[in-house]
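Input record, target 12 of the design panel.
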C-alpha cells in the first residue's frame, strides 16, 4: 500500500500546487467537477471542488 499525504493550499491555487508536485515526480490526485454558474447574465462552466 502506498503512503499518501494531504496538503493544504491557498484558495484557488490547487491546480498550481498539483502541477508543482507533478513536476517533482509525485503522483497526484486532484478531483474536480464542472460547476455551471451564471455570471453577468451568461451561463459558464467553472471548475470546482466538492465540499
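The sequence produced for target 12 reads:
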Amino acid at each position: 500500500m502506498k503512503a499518501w499525504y494531504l496538503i493544504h493550499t491557498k484558495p484557488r491555487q490547487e491546480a498550481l500546487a498539483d502541477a508543482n508536485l507533478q513536476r517533482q515526480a509525485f503522483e497526484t490526485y486532484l478531483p474536480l467537477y464542472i460547476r455551471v454558474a451564471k455570471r453577468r447574465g451568461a451561463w459558464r462552466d467553472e471548475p470546482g471542488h466538492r465540499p
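The chain has a mean pLDDT of 84.
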